[in-house]
Amino acid sequence: FFEGARRNAQGHAKHTKGTHKRIGALSRPSTRPCHRLRAYTPSQPRPHPGRLSTLAMARLFLDQEALTQYKDRKFLGSLDDYLECLRTSTTLYVGNVSFFTTEEQIWEIFRKVGVVRTIVMGLDKNVLTPCGFCFVEFHNRGDAERAVKYLNGTKLDDREIRIDFDWGFEDGRQFGRGKSGGQVRDEYRTFFDEGRGGYGKLLKAELDNLAAGAEDKG
């Protein structure tokens, strides 16, 4: 069903700069989370699935599929609240970034599609060094949509960066959530990634401990 509906929706879809403010990695950002969370009440009945046309259902399916590639587990609210924030947000999450990529490089890329309001670089919470992601906020939604459309997959420092809509930056989200201080994805990496610190930090620590134990026994 969805394959046919997807093709139908895609066939009918319509493909639809000011001053800027930059901030350093430790500056307080002006990005704002979505505060328009609306609770469901009986006075706001949701449409019954049977009343939706095939095209409408396909568009809803495609919209949710595109918007939920990146999901912040700390978001407080329902899935409907989350999706509504993503549909109106001017903030983007940028992942798979090299530890060596600078804020200036991010700026130069994203300014090509619109007026950037703020850039917040992701930091290792223990040593406050870049840990491979950032948040980019534009002045308007149209610029953010162009960034996702044209810049997602762009090669930066030999890495294809991943760009997703974000529900809005809050202080504290710039820090990695892994046990070692960085991102969780970099904890147990089993291959060497020069752009993201080599082997996984926790895996490397375990291997070092095993090597030290072997030397002691020797």
Automatic annotation (TrEMBL):
One of its GO terms (molecular function) is RNA cap binding. The keyword Nuclease does not apply. It is found in: Nucleus. The keyword Nucleus applies. Residues 1-29 are annotated as: Disordered. GO terms for biological process: mRNA cis splicing, via spliceosome; mRNA transport; RNA catabolic process. Residues 90-168 form the RRM domain. Residues 12-23 have a biased composition (Basic residues). GO terms for cellular component: nuclear cap binding complex; nucleus. Keywords: mRNA processing, mRNA splicing, mRNA transport, Nucleus, RNA-binding, Transport. It comes from the Eukaryota. Belongs to the RRM NCBP2 family. This is Nuclear cap-binding protein subunit 2. The lineage of its organism: Eukaryota, Viridiplantae, Chlorophyta, Mamiellophyceae, Mamiellales.
